[in-house]
Amino acid sequence: MERLKQYGVVMSGTVNKVILIGNLGNTPELKRSDSGGPILTFSLATNQRKRSANGEYIDHTEWHNIVVFGKQAEILHQYATKGSSIYIEGKLRTRSWESNNRKHYKVEVVLSEFMFTGNKSNEEYAAVPEQPSKDLSSDVDLEDIPF
After folding, report:
1. pTM (2 decimals)?
2. Is the CATH number of domain 13-120 2.40.50.140?
3. pLDDT (tens digit, 9 = 90+) per residue, 19-29?
4. How far apart (Å, rounded) are the C-alpha atoms in residues 53 and 33?
């Protein structure tokens, strides 16, 4: 650690960041929180292809639970469909609840930024609003956004 400090490399704290590029496994489902805020959930598939010892390709699909809040949830609900290719950034969150005297857990990626990739022509993407770099969970009237 001292050697790292000598070169100006110092890490303190922790990092919780997830970056994924994949395809939506289902059409996103929009719900409302108790306070009326939009919450969007969907599954995202990422694929990995490896070659086995006998030379055959083996595909492995990993499924990720994604949750989106606020205006981003509304935008994704409007434009994303099953199979859409998307780049996302977010953080991991483990949610727990109890049902029938049994504790359940679910690991989710809470989305902070996204960008559509592939699957559509440039003309189709031109209709999708550009992603702002700040949190969209505040109450902003869609009519005030210049797109």
Report:
1. 0.70
2. yes
3. 999 999 999 99
4. 50
